[in-house]
Amino acid sequence: MTATDTDQYVYGIVRTGTPTPPVAGVDDEPVDVLTAGDLAVLVSPVVDAGEIGTPENLLAHSRVLDQVAAGDAVLPMAFGTVVPDADVLVEDILPRLHDDYLERLHRIEGATQFTVRARYVEDAVLAEVIWENPNIARLRESTVGTTEEESYNERIELGRSVSDAIGRKAEEDARALSERLTPLSRDLVIRERTSAEDVAEIVALVDRNAQADFERAVESLAAESAGRIIFRLLGPQAPYDFVGEV
């Protein structure tokens, strides 16, 4: 595809010759490529840039990038990136950043991203911390049969103690999970916990030839932790966490 005067929605940077994904893009528009030497950019036409930021379009953006990442290296652009002048993209931006983009593509060549989300079964982890911490058991017992007003201080201390205990347990479990997955990953990142029940959200850059082994390892972890930790595996995904800001 040659550059046009039409606004272009930009998904990501790839090597020239990368197959166009067989899925609809943002606003159900077909995905195509603009090429500049040995680099190319995945795009689709934009009718109304003001209507881009919908949940459906976010899913379409991710779907296009994940489809490409399943077989080829791609540098994902941020959701909502629109270029009003495609000539600038092809004739200025890609040539100017050519070496940087090629280096980043080389860094992720042959690999894709997986995200492992591990979350405690609430009743199970609560039972563990009560069993392991006599002070928590005592505080819990002291609130039984009382109103919130009568045992306000004890309830505050109980909540804080439980949260701290689960946090320590999550650190230990996250470390154990990462130790199991690190040998199967080219690179690995542990994101910050966002809720009390979170064990870990581990993002791994996995060689495609190790993908099956990685998936089996997550399945084994889930089986070993059944009833205690729930696992969710997402991927293959575009390598958002391993290419920096594009």
UniProtKB/TrEMBL annotation:
One of its GO terms (cellular component) is gas vesicle. It is found in: Gas vesicle. Pfam families: GvpL_GvpF. Signal peptide: none annotated. Keywords: Gas vesicle. GO terms for biological process: gas vesicle organization. InterPro entries: GvpL/GvpF. Belongs to the gas vesicle GvpF/GvpL family. This is Gas vesicle synthesis protein GvpL/GvpF. It comes from Microbacterium mangrovi.
